[in-house]
Amino acid sequence: MNTNAVAKLLGVSPSTIQRWVKHANLTMNRNELGHYVFNEDDIEVMKKIQEQINNGVLLQDIAAAAKKTRQATIKKETRQPDYGSLVTKIKELEMKLDRKADEHVSYQLLQHRREIEELHNKIEVLTEKIELLEGKTAKEEHNPEEMVAATAEENKIFKRLKKKNFISSLFGF
């Protein structure tokens, strides 16, 4: 029986039963959780203690009616975890992690390669424009009269566009 059952049988509280066991220095069996387990002999001892207390004997003066040797409880055998399967799972996770890291690095390399190619194309375009501008400057040095005429022509076109933009902004067309 457990402490609660013995307490109900004797008509006292469970804490009273626990107090009697401690003060009378009784050696009790315990279960896996450390709770008292009472057999028939233990219940008889508790009844004698209750009888002595009812007759006016102090709890401190009560000696154990029957000294018992303490019996150890046998713990259930705990299963050892399977370390082999854990190691296998860890290795699988490491392999997946390595594969994912490789995929990520490959993706980044391809992205960097594409960016480098785009920059290379822009450099080629800029080189062509520079060469074209250098060619124009070389022409201007040879024909300054044509250059002045071309600049005057460009100024006229620019002024017309400016007037047109101004008028269209005023009238909204």
From TrEMBL:
It is found in: Cytoplasm. The gene is racA. This is Chromosome-anchoring protein RacA. The keyword Coiled coil applies. It comes from Mesobacillus persicus. The keyword Acetylation does not apply. Residues 3-23 bind DNA. One of its GO terms (cellular component) is cytoplasm. GO terms for biological process: asymmetric cell division; chromosome condensation; chromosome segregation; sporulation resulting in formation of a cellular spore. Residues 109-143 form a coiled coil. Gene3D superfamilies: 1.10.1660.10.
